[in-house]
Amino acid sequence: MKHNTILMLCVILLFSCKEQDARRHVIQKTATIFSETIEQNKKLIALENNVIENYLAQDSTKQYNVATNGFWYSYVTKKETESPTPKIGDVVEISYDITDLYGSVFYTKEELGIKNYKIDKEDFIPGIQEGIKLMNIGETITVVIPSYRAFGLVGDEHKIGINQTIKSTVTLISIKQN
């Protein structure tokens, strides 16, 4: 009887020690996530562009031009005589401010001061970089820049929030050609 009980316990232990199968991870295809993110971003960009276009249509005081680089601009002061525009590597001296579309000021010209910027060789707000290249010395433009051409998803981590459309009035003071 003892032998039967011991044998029975050994058989039970032998079969109960079977190794468990690990659960498999649920894998969502990266391509699916990536394409969903792209579609979501396209919708956000279209929505932001729609808001900007509606704002510009209501601003009857200025004639805005659409730049190929994803921003809108309007001349505040335009020179009648053409002079050289800044080229890559030139150092420009500018003054600018940054507001939201409706005039709430993020940074005044006084706060930002005069900026020396080397064209396309330094990190700067992409919409303003491209706008400067359209200007002659002494001209002033207002640029409306969607968030994806300004500070994007992180803002400036101070005053400008995430996905914030900005407006800036920029004056080109001088160009030091390279």
What does this structure look like?
- The protein has 178 residues and is α+β, with helices and mostly antiparallel strands.
- Helices cover 31% and strands 22% of the residues.
- It contains 4 helices and 8 strands; from the N terminus they run H-H-E-E-E-E-E-H-E-H-E-E.
- It has a 6-stranded antiparallel beta sheet, with helices on one face.
- It is elongated, with a radius of gyration of 30 Å.
- The termini are far apart.
- The mean pLDDT is 87.
- Content of β-strand: 15-25%
> If strands are numbered along the chain, what order do they take across the biggest sheet?
1-2-7-8-3-6
The 3D shape can be described as: elongated
Low-pLDDT regions: none
The total of beta strands comes to: 8
Instruction: Let me know the average pLDDT.
Output: 87
Approximately how much helix is present in the residues? 25-40%
Structural class: alpha+beta
Assembly category: single chain
**Discrete helix count:** 4
Q: How many angstroms separate the termini? A: 103 Å
Rounded to the nearest angstrom, the radius of gyration is 30 Å
Order of helices and strands: HHEEEEEHEHEE
